Request: fold
Amino acid sequence: MTNYSYGIGSEGIIKKQRARDIAKELFRKSIHICSAFIPLFLRYAYWPVIILLCLAALLYTVFEIARRNGYEIPLVSQITAAAARKRDENRFVLGPLTLVSGIVFAALLWDPSCAAVGIYALSFGDGLASLSGKLFGRVKIPGTSGKTVAGSLTCFTAIFISSFAVTSRADIALWVACAGTVIEVLPLKDFDNLIIPVVLGGFTHCLLAI
Reply:
């Protein structure tokens, strides 16, 4: 009887932890997905948006250093704590900084269409892949630190659709989706936020030049 009760309690704890993990991932990836508005903002106010993004990155760095040193920054510290994963505990949370950096570098390096492809790949491909993996992922991909087949398929589909919407070319969208899925599945941790928009923006630039 004792063992049975313990089993029920353990199962309940696991379910609650899974629910918390999913809620945290929803919050984190909602930030990713909101970055899809950036190409629109860049179209109408390129330099003001770039400057604001750089200022945001700078302020975040200052606030995160302060948080690491025991100073609570109203609202910012709560948002960071809500979005932080277990691996980020007691560490500088790099995700928001690499996210903004990847978007800024893509916008500076590539023309608006190519930059948009890279930013959308980050917003929708990487964002939805993680959510799909958490919700539906059952089959793990070996050597990827827990990435799932469901997540990779979602990533491919999201990047293909968003790339085709920008370029109107299925062949380019297919190549970009394949490249994006390979990058996303690598165990890059938070640095995929930096690599995906820059590399896929450049890849799109090369494909369009052929």
Q: What stands out?
A: The CA atoms of residues 47 and 53 lie 10 Å apart. DSSP finds nine helices and no strands in the chain. The two ends are 71 Å apart (CA to CA).
